[in-house]
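Run: sequence + magnesium ion -> complex structure.
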Amino acid sequence: MSSPAGAEENAATPRRLFLALWPGVVERAQIAELAAQAAGRGRLRDANLHLTLAFLGATGAARLAAYQAALAELPMPELDLLLDRYGYWPQSRILWLGSSRTPPELYELVAELHRRLRRCGFEPERRAFQAHITLARRFPGPAPVQPPAVPVRWRSAEVALVESILDRQGARYQVLQRWPGARLADGSME
Ligand code: ATP
Ligand code: MG
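>> structure
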């Protein structure tokens, strides 16, 4: 019996997952503009821009169900991020966008995610969390000398569960679920 590529994948196939803040349409366009200014053609695809909160890695169906249950009642702060600085990690050659004043609520959110996921067997990274949006990989460096002329204000009130799918052009991401799914004060979803 023939089937399209990928159709053999079933619940037993682990999926490569991570939790992230996922930009809405407006913020994504603004971040993409800064990526274009800073990295030109070497930048990430616009659709891939995100802020990783926790990398879950290859996750089987039972573990995924446990994570979903653990995150069901997640208390979610309203995060108010000002993306106003570039950074560069020479070892990994990553150019990133971040904030000169990452709000404490974001660190608290990551700690809360770790607490909940650990109960399901998740092992957080040893490195301290550094809030960043990767703009370019294999970037020759250094980071732009000037900070972004127009910083991006990003208010986020949702954690996204994202699957990373490898295709010929690299990783493609698909949002599977969001917590808590609450609407922002202005009534918009993103
Ligand atoms: P590629 O690996 O093909 O270059 P990618 O890094 O964008 O693409 P993934 O490796 O699936 O895609 O990573 C998804 C997200 O999780 C990215 O934000 C990535 O930086 C982060 N990530 C990946 N591996 C780890 C890890 N071992 N520890 C922490 N974060 C990770
Ligand atoms: Mg990777």
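>> summary
The two ends are 42 Å apart (CA to CA). The first strand starts at residue 15 and ends at 21.
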